[in-house]
Design brief:
Elements: E1 11-20, E2 23-33, E3 38-42, H1 49-56, E4 64-69, E5 72-73, H2 78-83, E6 85-88, H3 100-110, H4 115-128, H5 144-156, E7 162-166, H6 174-191, E8 194-198, H7 202-205, E9 210-215, E10 218-223, H8 225-232, E11 235-241, H9 244-255, E12 258-262, E13 265-270, H10 273-276, E14 287-293, H11 297-305, H12 316-328
Parallel strand pairs: 3-8, 3-9, 6-7, 7-8
Antiparallel strand pairs: 1-2, 1-4, 4-5, 9-10, 11-13, 11-14, 12-13
Helix pairs in contact: 3-4, 4-5, 5-6, 8-11
Length: 333
């Protein structure tokens, strides 16, 4: 992963709020993202993460607070912000009846790129994402993974400083997901961009330099994946014996650890699960199985958000309207 730079943050938000009538979707977001960082933004359904991204991308105006992307204010310098960001949405926004190259040329026209500059840039990006040999094929013949790679190429066409990936691997099979991330990692190295990611896959969140967990419109935790997992504190030792009730009681009494009774097993919470396992054999109760689990990002999510990952915040109709606005460079004021 890229090292975080020491210069001014490429994304910053202070006291960011957004309300929809009486509904407060975002209640005060404060973040700073360094240049070159891969930053994960996680949250359950309705947490406010999609609303936050839309404010950072100038698709929604903040009700209160401020935010800057690439040194430009998201309200007063919307056009400048848009020149410095690339977007890959949850659902494809490609034209299936155009070829890969034609889709990129259309995007270049929207951004005002001269053909003399756009043509070599398109060729380089198609090569970079492994689609050079399909440049003149209609997108309707592409697999889901190929379409995602083309959308990333499109998002990078105007050389943005920040690439926003909003659930980029939704609907992809495991092989396509892995392939997409290989391309993203390569692109980060070659393009030196900052990646701002939302995802519901914990293995993808593990790739981030830092993660913010947002719930009910506020950030509950923000740190590296390793530090967040360490904050959960305890390993889980799951034990199944010939007499779980008796053994659980003895373990609890002698060692003063937290023991959780479960169906046909019990769980011991301890800072070092592997060191604790031998102690289970001191009581004379035959142990049938033992499993040690380290804290995971899902455990972190349960601690700070109170639920497991859910589906995306907004429905497809609202998302589609905002995507069209982004492509056309417009927004209702």
């Amino acid at each position: 992963m890229a090292q975080r730079a020491s210069d001014a943050p490429v994304i910053s938000a202070t006291g960011l709020h957004r309300s929809f009538g009486d509904i407060k979707a975002v209640r005060g977001i404060d973040i700073e993202v360094a240049a070159g960082e891969c930053f994960g933004f996680l949250g359950p359904n309705g947490a406010g993460k999609s609303t936050t991204i839309k404010m950072l991308c100038t698709l929604l105006r903040p009700t209160a607070g401020s935010a800057q992307v690439a040194g430009h204010d998201v309200v007063t310098e919307r056009d400048e912000v848009r020149r410095h960001i690339g977007l890959v949405f949850q659902e494809t926004t490609l034209d299936d009846y155009l070829t890969a190259r034609q889709n990129l040329l259309f995007h270049a026209d929207i951004y005002g790129l001269a053909r003399s500059a756009a043509t070599p840039r398109i060729a380089a990006l198609l090569e970079m994402v492994g689609l050079a040999d399909r440049r003149d094929h209609q997108v309707l013949t592409f697999s889901g993974g190929m379409k995602r790679r083309l959308e990333i190429a499109r998002g990078l066409l105007h050389s943005p400083r920040v690439l926003f990936l909003d659930e980029p691997t939704i609907g992809l099979d495991p092989e396509s997901r892995a392939g997409l991330w290989r391309y993203v990692d390569a692109l980060r190295e070659q393009e030196h961009i900052t990646v701002f990611l939302t995802t519901h896959y914990m293995d993808e969140a593990e790739r981030c330099d830092r993660i913010a967990i947002v719930n009910k419109g506020v950030i509950g935790a923000l740190d590296s994946p390793a530090a967040l997992k360490a904050s959960v504190g305890h390993d889980r030792v799951t034990v199944h014996s010939e007499d779980d009730t008796a053994l659980a009681g003895q373990v609890r009494e002698r060692y003063g650890v937290e023991v959780i009774d479960e169906a046909e097993s019990f769980v011991v919470l301890t800072p070092d699960g592997e060191r604790f396992v031998p102690k289970l054999f001191e009581f004379g109760v035959p142990v049938l199985s033992v499993k040690v689990s380290r804290p995971s990002l899902d455990d972190v999510f349960l601690k700070f958000a109170g639920s497991r990952m859910a589906e995306a915040d907004e429905g497809p109709a609202a998302s589609k309207r905002l995507r069209v606005m982004a492509m056309m460079g417009g927004q209702r004021r």
